Amino acid sequence: MLLAMSVPLTLLGLLEREPSHGYDLKRDYDAYFGRGRPLSFGQVYATLARLSRDGKVVMDEVAPGEGPERKRYVITEAGATEVDAWLVEPVQPEPHLQTVLFAKVVLALMLDRPAERYLDLQRGKHLQRMRELTEIKRSGGLVDGLLADHGLFHLEADLRWIDTTAARLDALAKEVRS
Amino acid sequence: MTAALEARDAVLSFGETPALRGATVTVAAGEILAVMGPSGSGKSTLLHCLAGILLPQSGEIRFGDRRIDAMSENERSTLRRDHFGFVFQFGQLVPELTAEENVALPLLLGGVRREKALKSARPWFGRLGLDGLEGRRSGELSGGQAQRVALARGLVARPEVLFADEPTGSLDSLTGEQVMDLLVESARAEGTTVVLVTHEARVAAYADREVIVRDGKVTSLTPEPVLS
Question: Which end of chain B has fewer CB atoms within 10 angstroms, the N or the C?
Answer without folding.
Answer: C
